[in-house]
Amino acid sequence: MFDDVAAKYDLTNDVLSLGQARLWRKAVARAVDARAGERVLDLAAGTGTSSLPFREAGAYVVPCDFSLGMLREGKKRHPGLPLTAGDATRLPFADGVFDAVTISFGLRNVQDTRGALAEMLRVTRPGGRVVICEFSHPTWQPFRTVYTEYLMRALPPIATSVSSNPDAYVYLAESIRAWPDQPGLAARLRSAGWERPAWRNLTGGVVALHRAYKP
C-alpha cells in the first residue's frame, strides 16, 4: 500500500493535514534534539524527508522503512542518506547503537506495537531516548466530533484528488480512530521497558508527541 502512494506521499500529507505536517516535523526535531556526532534512527522514515533535520543538526541519521517503494523514491530525492530497509519488529541493528530513535506516524501501522517498542529499546543505548509522533485523540470534545467527521467524510474525497491510491487514506482514517489515546500509548511505552514516558499535544491533540528514556 505504501509503495503505491510513495510518489505523492509528502504532498498528500501536506494537503490532508492542512499544512500542519511541516509544523509537526519541526516539533519532532526539537523533541529529539539531535546533537552533532549522535546516532539517530528514524523509523518509518518513508522518503527520508523526516530525517533531514537530524542530518542538518550534525547527527548521523539512518532512515529506515519497511516499504521498498518509499525507499526508492527517497533515494531519488536524497541520494546522500543511508536509506535502509527494515522491519520495526526485527530491526537490522546491533544492541545499544543509537542515541535516539524516533518514529513519526508509523507505529500505528506496525502490527505488533509492543514488539516494535521493545526493538526500539534494544537498539538504543542506556540513557538514550525515543520520540514518537503519532495521531491521537483531540482533548476538546466538540473539536473531537468535528475531527472525526473530517476523517471519515472529507479525507477520502480529498485523497482521491491528490493521491495515487485513495483507498490507502480510507485505511488511514480507520486506523487513527482505532489508535489508543495519549495515556494509552504512554502505558504501552512503560510496559515495553521505557522510563519516564511523557507527551505533549499538538494541534489540540490531533497529534501527540511522546518521549521516553532507556534505563
From TrEMBL:
Q: Which Pfam families would you find in this protein's record?
A: Ubie_methyltran
Which major enzyme category is it?
Answer: transferase
Q: Which SUPFAM superfamilies match?
A: S-adenosyl-L-methionine-dependent methyltransferases
MF (Gene Ontology): methyltransferase activity
Tell me which EC number(s) this protein carries. Answer: 2.1.1.163
Organism's domain of life? Answer: Bacteria
Q: Which UniProt keywords apply?
A: Menaquinone biosynthesis, Methyltransferase, S-adenosyl-L-methionine, Transferase
Pathway listed:
Quinol/quinone metabolism; menaquinone biosynthesis; menaquinol from 1,4-dihydroxy-2-naphthoate: step 2/2
Q: Name one GO biological process term.
A: methylation
Binding positions (S-adenosyl-L-methionine): T47, D65, D87, A88, S104
* Functional note: Methyltransferase required for the conversion of demethylmenaquinol (DMKH2) to menaquinol (MKH2).
Q: Which HAMAP family match?
A: MenG_UbiE_methyltr
Protein name according to UniProt: Demethylmenaquinone methyltransferase
Q: What organism is recorded for this protein?
A: Streptomyces javensis
Gene, per the UniProt record: menG
